[in-house]
Amino acid sequence: MRNLGDALDDANLAGQDNGTPTSSHRTDEEPAYSIDVVCYDPENRDLPCPLCDGKGVYTLDVPLTDPRFGRFQRCPNHPVEDDREMHERLRRFGNLDGYRDKTFENFRVSHLGGSYTPINVTSLYNAKSIAEGYAEKPIGWLVYEGPYGSGKTHLAVAIANSRLELYGEQVIFITAPDLLDLLRATFGSESEASYDAYFERIRNVPLLVLDDLGVENPSGWAKEKLFQLLNFRHVNQLPTVVTTNTPFDDLDPRISSRMMQGEIVKHIRINAPDYRRVARTQSLDMRFNDLRLYQEMRFDTFEAESLDNDEKASLKTGLRMARTWAQEPQGWLCFLGDYGSGKTHLAASIANDLNERGKDVMFTTAPDLLDYLRQAFDPQSRSRFDKRFQDILGIPILVLDDLSLTNATSWSKEKLFQIIDYRYLSKRPTVFTTSETRQMIEEDSPRLATRLFDRRLCKWFDLDPVGSYVKRMKTQS
Ligand SMILES: [Zn+2]
Q1: Which CATH number fits domain 79-269: 3.40.50.360, 3.40.50.300, 2.40.420.20, 3.30.70.360?
Q2: Would you say the pTM of this structure is higher than 0.85?
Q3: How remote is the CA of residue 40 from the centroid of ligand 1, in Å?
């Protein structure tokens, strides 16, 4: 980060009169083009360009009174996108040195074995096409909201790279915490002048990309600076891209209200999981974490209609509990119910909802989980099993469907107990469903029962006090 300050000093960003319609704020300094040949004869690439003598710029032969007198013009044989030297300067200025690999071309909207759901793919595709449109015509603000690793920074940087390379525009990419550090470092003492200069540059830069707004947790002074900066750009409608993973409610309300204002702000929510997590989950066997099989099971497809009022009320309560839990996963939630009571639908809805919000959730049935462990179990060589077991223990949010102990072997019971006990002790958010009664579980595994029936951690809900969900669906149709 220290480099940005130096870069701001070093970068000689003279106005380039290239006629490109950008919102560039121009200075009157002369461009410091290298005397080396940068522009070539289009007829013969080995020779310097005859129009500009290879300099890439030339002055027009106009009278002294002409406003263009003495000003450099960009040579038509040396288009902006070929001007490597300028790109490098702009990169240093914009803090984009380390980000040249983030482009629209290599932004992937579907990958990793198709483990993105169609909703993820659509969301990423939309987010990308909006970014491409903005890169062509940056008007107003673009606010990307999405979880860590969802690709919002990649898109924001791709916009910056594209403006820089195709239009020669000055852009600054900076994370909110780095921006505040920079301002703090330059504020006061002998560097007051440079503080003013930096602040001015960031305030006025033709395109500002502010990454990760909300993680900075600013003090009063920094909060004020950030507000001043964003307010200035908002009032003056200066092109600005903001990314955040912080709920708007948690941001400075003066800033979030500006990010909400529809006319100049386009707000895009990216529904995609952290791609690094997707890659990690892939290392777990997809057979036991395949949410795609359950992708139709969502809160809004859950039928809570019934002719029976008690049943209807019970299903609605279950749905409400599931939604509330998904909103902020804490503690344990257990749905009891016969086959077809709708418990799997609710559990999968929770997993789908969390997954689309980028939360680290795994959905699996208890039998699949045990199979997965059993396949790797070989008393002679424990390593593969241990790895799988550790992977499962490490799952931040687990939705475990169809927990059943009646026919479980003692090995299975032991493994389930170990997993559940670990989650109990570490208080990891977990959803269970079971078609067994409480009494059955207490008889089959008293140890497990003490964990599952601990009311301090686990909320129980019986979905099926009256009849079967499947039966009801059938009689309805
Ligand atoms: Zn030329």
Answers
A1: 3.40.50.300
A2: no
A3: 6
